[in-house]
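Re: the 231-residue chain
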Amino acid sequence: MRIPAHSVCTAVRDDIVAGVYERGSRLTEELLARRYGVSRVPVREALRTLEAEGFVVTRRHAGACVAEPTEQEAADLLEMRMLLEPLGAARAAQRRTEAHLKVLRGLVRLGQERARRGNSEDLRSLGGWFHETLAQSSASHALTSMLTQLRHKISWMYAVEAPADPVESWAEHGAIVDAVARGDGERARALTSLHTERSTAAHRLRFSGGSERADRVRTSQPPVNMTGLRN
């Protein structure tokens, strides 16, 4: 069975974000094909996609390597998110469906419940699902795609501290959903802008200054079973 290139791309991207492959390390087709149990063809296609997304660069005499973003490039990502997420919320207020609202409200209820109980283990993933659903509610494929890429890159470059008051943070999520439900685009934009600005302050860069180029990827990682990934 041929594994789709986009499944390989997702797996490699997730491993880059998780730090399996260090910044600057080489990504050889042979090593990746062996790790994910695929041929070189989908690996080659995946690397092209990841290069277009900014996770991979091609260097002379070295081939594909994990990108080494600068501090300024990392800062630019947060600024872009602060501009685009409020836009997505404003669009969602005009274009959301009842299905989107149902999911958003469900996530808010669950997030508020976990926050009140002090169960913070799931709050980060719930927050990610909330913002992903909010972006999808904008009914703009281009905007949703850009926000998804931004979230991946920000997760790669930044560690995020838990909010000092998770109950207040999820109350902000609830207020955004209320504005979206009423079709109030300007309020949704303003609330999301404030929420994004506050959350940005909790981001801490995972690297500082230059970093030494790694000569090879970590080879101690076990192979990844890709046979179950069909789409």
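The radius of gyration is 19 Å.
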